[in-house]
Structure formats: C-alpha cells, structure tokens
Amino acid sequence: MDDTHEVSTGEPSDGATASERPGSVMPRRAAMAGVGAIAVSGLALAGCQVEDGGNGGGGGGNGDGDGGDGDGGNGDGGNGDGSGESIANTDEIPVGGGVVFDDEGVVITQPTEGEFKGFSATCTHQGCTVAGVADGTINCSCHGSKFSIEDASVVNGPAERPLDERALSVNGNSLTLG
Hints:
Elements: E1 4-6, E2 25-27, H1 28-46, E3 86-89, E4 97-101, E5 106-110, E6 117-120, E7 132-134, E8 137-139, E9 146-148, E10 154-156, E11 168-171, E12 174-177
Antiparallel strand pairs: 1-2, 3-12, 4-5, 5-6, 7-8, 8-9, 9-10, 11-12
C-alpha cells in the first residue's frame, strides 16, 4: 500500500512523481509526525505551567520522561516586603519622630516612648516616596503633603488619604515588618 495521499489539483495527470509536484502530495507519515509533534509539544508546555495549589488533574502522557534532577525549588523566595527580617533597632527611631526606610518602602515612627508604628513610605497623593520625618509629621517633598506620625492621617494636603499602615512587630530591641 502506498503511504501517500494524492491531492487533486484539478489538472490532468502528467505522470510526474510526487517529488516533481511540490505541494500536491503529502506523505501520511509526515502528516502524522507533524500532528504528533504538535501534541507532544503541547504536553511539554503544559508541564511548564506554574502550580497555583489546585489539583487541576493530569493529562495522559506515555511516561517516557526522566523526571528531572530534583534541583528546582530550593530557593528561599526572597523576603518580598521584608517580613521576618529586622529592619531597625528601637533605639534608631527617635521619640516624637521617625525614620524612612527607602529599600523596604516603609516609615517607622515612635509617637510616644515605646510605641512604634509602621506606614507605607509611598505618598497617597501621586506616589512619591516620602522624604523624612520632622516636627511630628511624615513629609513628602514632592508636593508638600504631611502626615501624622501617630496614625498617618493627612495633616496638610494635597494628599487626601492617609498613608497605608504596615504591620510592625517589636521583639526586644528589634523592629520587624509583618
């Protein structure tokens, strides 16, 4: 049996072979190999998807893979918002003032002795990073907004919303986000 399937071009046969008529004949094996390659590549791509915790079910496959070397996934994932790491000692934050930590995107204040607060360092007016803390306010130098060191409420606009609060833990002399 011939492994080719002739495609009619509407022209009379001239006796030419398949290789002499490009595009008019496609071997079945080539067609099936192409379909198989597409199916296998689809399964390979599906294997690269990021898991989201669901059980999504598995799809067939022939079990011929080697399973990998098991080296992936051993990183710590970074600290994201800095949670778990001490970013300051309590004695670094002045009573009645505060400090902006640019890298962590946070302002830590100490309104009264031993009371520490954490707020986002991003001004709610137009997203500038606040510049510093002075005279009982957290100050944005971009447009002059000022926020209370006690609760980050707006003391002076143009900002209309307070700074977002950030969770802050005190453990001995250590201040930790999260």
